[in-house]
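Let's practice the habit of predicting before peeking. Look at the sequence and jot down your guess about where helices and strands might fall. Then scroll down.
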Amino acid sequence: MRSVVPCHASRNHNNDSNGLGDPEKEQQFEPNVKYSEQDEVKLIQWIKTLTGNCPNEVGQQGFYEWLKDGQVLSQLMNQLVPGAYVVNPPSKSRLPAKRAMFERENINFFIQAARSYGVPIQDLFQIPYLYDQENMYQVQLTLVIMKGIHEGKSGKL
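Done guessing? Here is the structure:
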C-alpha cells in the first residue's frame, strides 16, 4: 500500500468568492453550499494515491481548477480501468473556444467512463457542474461514489 503524502497547498479562506450578499450569486452558488472540505481532503488523498497528482491549492476553488480541464479525471480513470480511457492532451491553442471544446470533451469522456464503471446515472455530474463550477457538490458526490466502488472492487472497505 502506497503512503499518501499530504499536498502542500494553502487553504484559501476568502469568503468573498461565495457570493454572499448578492441574491443572484446566492442562487447561482446554492448547490455549492453542500460542498464538503472533509470529502475534498479524502478525495485528494485517494486521487493522489492513484495518480500522484494533487492540486496547487486546497479549497473549492483549488479543487475546481485541478479538475476543470479533465486531465486529472482521465489519469484517475486510466488507473481504475487501465487503457480504457482516451483523453485529449492539454490544448495549447490560443483560441479559448477550441481549448474549452477539448476540456469539455475530456469531462464528457470521464462521465461516460464513470457510468460504465458503475456510478448510477442519477449520481453523475453534468459537464457545466464542473466546467462552469455550477455544482461542485455533485462533482464531489460522483467522485465519492467512484471511490466507494473502487474500494469495493479492490477489497479496501
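How did you do? Helices lie at 23-29, 37-51, 60-67, 71-80, 96-117, 127-131, 136-154.
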